[in-house]
Amino acid sequence: MTHENYLQAVEKLNLYAYHYYVLDDPLTTDEAYDALYHEAVAYEEQNPDKIAPDSPTQRVGDRVSEGFEKAAHLSRMWSLEDIFDASGLEKWLTKTYKLDSNITFYCEPKYDGASLNLIYEEGKLSKGITRGDGSIGELITQNVKTIRSIPLTIPHKETIEIRGEVVLYKEEFERINQERLQNGEALFANPRNAAAGSLRQLDSSITASRKLVFLPYGVGENTLTERLLSEKMEKIYSWGFKQPPLRATCQGFSEIEAIYEQMQTERESYAMMLDGMVVKVNEIAAQIDMGYTVKVPRFSVAYKFPAVEKITRIKDILLQVGRSGAVTPVALVEPTDIEGVIVERATLHNFDEIDRKDIRIGDNVIILRSGDVIPKIIKVLTHERTGSEKPYARPELCPVCGSELLDEGALLKCQNLRCDARVVNSIIYFASKPCLNIDGLGDKIVEALYNAHLVRSVIDLFGLSKEQLLTLEGFKEKKAQNLLDAIEHAKGCDYYRFINSLGIEHIGEVASKTLADRFGFGFIDATKEELMACEGVGEEMAESVLEFVRVNRQTILELQNAVAPKEPQKRAEAHDNPFKGRTVVLTGTMSESRDAIKELLESLGAKVSGSVSKKTDYLIYGEDAGSKYDKASALGVACIEEKEMREMLK
Ligand code: IVH
């Protein structure tokens, strides 16, 4: 590959990523992207001094920091005054028109996440800083680079601060909490905490594994000459930043009210959570004239959406059984209107939560419909108890199949693999987006197929005929054909999707990718040692894979036959070299990204592990090596500098 071809490849990769992460409208397949990505990596390995600053390889989350440095914002980050209703808006407008009667307004969502300041110098992202106290925040540039909707380079060469909110989409928030629930970790209370927590990870690979999204809402220090804020924002979007789901320029009270109403009705369908709408004076000159109070700008206000907390009563507690057999309690409440949505259920997460909050049937409780995620109970009104409330007894039998439950403390589990709920939910999971992504195979249809005895396990999906589908209620020719096409289309998927779809406990999408890349179809024969040598795979995960394969080997093979996933390319056997078959750990800053060096060593037949142990053969270190170096020295592991490693390869 010539340098020119390489630059073209980087440009194409960035275009693909822009369509995928910013426009939510993919241009190509994961496979085509990965193939091109690997070509770029190969070139960068050969030409470490010619890596383009906007190459997607520069985003990899492979650094672990010891702590975050502090960094100053170039100009202060402010907060906003809140208003809650039309009369608040009227008062604010009166006050603002007094300062300047000749103004218009720019309205956009108030996102519920964590604020972030991005500094670009000479067109390159140079710093990512959390809000902190408004003047000084924490420097989290490495983590910020893993966020795919943040461009690494922009066409604007003068120094500029771009401010915005880092959010987790509702779907991702639920996914992370589900994962935490399964791992017995504390749940994030809301997407804001989850976003802030994910941003401030010392291990940037954790940040990278959470799908954070950046939504710009303004600029700090800047030399842009546009007269209107709306024009500045359009310019920023044109540099590759994400656009809000709704924005508008407004003339006055009634136009602002109309947009506010629209946003409030539509917010349910937005991917991210909002907690209001921000109204800003659109004329930059007027903004500068109006200036700031001690805390907030005079030219801007947060028009919050109404409270989403209500008092209701728990009528009963229902039990849901998931695909892993985990039984989740759900509170059935008196139907309550929370901002136009009738809430009838609230999640209780797990049984420890019921004990901790001392939730009883008949209790009056405060429920929160936090912008859109599943409503939850935030407080039990114990002072309102009459004595007729019934404490909740933990179930001993599965509510669906009646078999005995295994009590794991917080979690109760149905052990029966043939339990209807487990089977149905595993089929739903198999067809879901991160797995085989079979369009049109949602909860209702899976249940119907199962109840009609047409699909009793996932493999049956591949033997469905149109005649069979036409026997189901609501199925006509077109719908039946669409479903068959979608199933056919899922064949030949990436192998990691296939592994993920098996639903192995503790093995999510990221681990599935790791296993697919490392072992290909051979993952069912991997030993515990081989599994644990993979980045991010611990003992519990390895044992879970082994146990699953032991019990289900035949089923996996049959299913693999039916799905015919693509096998990821395996590496050729490495020629003899000092690192072949050795276990190596990398630390410190090296001349290339750590992923590139990992690739290089793996291509030489080394196992690159994330942590130092007695089994480590070499610790290879770059600048600022930290605790791993100390640990390796203490264990007597050979520590060599990156330079030395390269010498050994000559
Ligand atoms: S403008 C000049 N616009 O809300 C005023 N802030 O309550 C600076 N936020 O710290 C803020 N969406 O993190 C602005 N469209 C939006 C926003 C937004 C969310 C956050 C931001 C700020 C907080 C203030």
Topology (elements, then pairings):
Layout: H1 3-22, H2 30-46, E1 70-72, E2 82-83, H3 86-99, E3 105-111, E4 114-121, E5 124-130, E6 136-138, H4 141-145, E7 160-168, H5 170-182, H6 191-199, H7 204-209, E8 212-219, H8 229-238, E9 248-250, H9 253-266, E10 274-281, H10 284-290, E11 300-304, E12 309-321, E13 326-338, E14 341-347, H11 351-357, E15 360-361, E16 364-368, E17 376-380, E18 390-391, E19 405-408, E20 411-414, H12 420-431, H13 443-451, H14 466-470, H15 477-490, H16 495-501, H17 509-519, H18 528-532, H19 539-563, E21 583-587, H20 594-603, E22 607-609, E23 618-621, H21 627-635, E24 638-641, H22 642-649
Parallel strand pairs: 2-11, 21-22, 21-23, 23-24
Antiparallel strand pairs: 1-6, 3-9, 3-10, 4-5, 4-7, 7-8, 10-11, 12-13, 12-16, 13-14, 13-20, 15-18, 16-17, 19-20
2-(butylsulfanyl)adenosine (IVH) binds near residues 111 and 217.
